[in-house]
Amino acid sequence: MCGLYGTWAYNFSTNIFHYLLKLNTKLLPYFGLGEAVDRTLLNHLLKMFTALGIYAESFEKPFLECTSEFYAAQGMKYMQQSDVPDYLKHMETRLQEEHDRCLIYLDASTRKPLIATAEKQLLERHIPAILERHIPPSLLFSLYLA
Predict the structure, then answer these.
(1) All domains of the chain, ordered by start, with CATH?
(2) SS3 9
(3) Tens digit of pLDDT for each residue in 71-124?
(4) Residue 139 CA to chain centroid, in angstroms?
(5) Rounded to whole angstroms, how far apart are CA atoms 75 and 61?
(6) Which of 77, 51, 49 is nearest to 61 (CA)?
(7) How far apart are CA 91 and CA 143, in angstroms?
(8) Cβ pair 110, 42 in contact under 8 A
(9) Residue 99 Cα to chain centre, angstroms
(10) What is the pTM for the complete model shown?
(11) How far does CA 73 lie from the centroid of its chain?
């Protein structure tokens, strides 16, 4: 009986995991667009993943990869379309949304890597362009020599 139950529980949790991962990665762009998402349901499902011991490897890792891809594309798009102050406001808004997402439904262990992923894709990758577009070349040159 235990073997059958264990197999059933594993298959059930695997199916729920794949559904949740697909749902969350499909919804990621909508979070950035202000769409309504049932965060309570996500919170409960992710707590179940944590209790089953499959959250970090089975959910967090693929989720962070999808997040990285999403913000890489979004960062490029917004950097091309916006001036530097507007881009930095956009970046600050996105970082706050990710922080809030961690408080609302993601496991606390996800906060640090999620914020680091968003910062890397939205800020670190664009520092040269931000400096080039916002700081006069003569000042950049003098900073470089210093």
Answers:
(1) 2-145 (1.20.1310.10)
(2) helix
(3) 999 999 999 999 888 999 999 999 998 998 888 888 889 999 999 999 999 999
(4) 34
(5) 21
(6) 49
(7) 25
(8) no
(9) 9
(10) 0.72
(11) 12
